[in-house]
Design brief:
The chain has 86 residues and is mainly α. It has helices spanning 2-18, 25-45, 50-66.
């Protein structure tokens, strides 16, 4: 759960840098609600792995805020994770 919270916090912080807006409670809550909906959609509905969801959260949030349709890597059923280095 901590990884999800950290990823949402980073995505929200970054969104204020890339999509300028006043950092008000309502703006933060709007972005948090969007993050929660995105995680629910990607993890719950599409059955993506948690690492994949967290990797796509930040760019997906930016697109949602900009009103741009975002389709991360299409409808792939599998997602490759690089093997750990030596």
């Amino acid at each position: 759960m901590q990884r999800v919270t950290d990823a949402m916090t980073r995505a929200i912080d970054k969104s204020f840098e890339t999509c300028p807006a006043r950092r008000t409670q309502s703006a933060i809550k709007e972005r948090l609600d969007l993050c929660l909906a995105l995680v629910q959609h990607l993890y719950g509905d599409l059955r993506w792995s948690l690492p994949r969801v967290l990797d796509y959260l930040e760019p997906y949030l930016r697109c949602e805020l900009a009103g741009i349709a975002y389709n991360p890597a299409g409808e792939r059923a599998l997602w490759a994770v690089p093997a750990p280095g030596p």
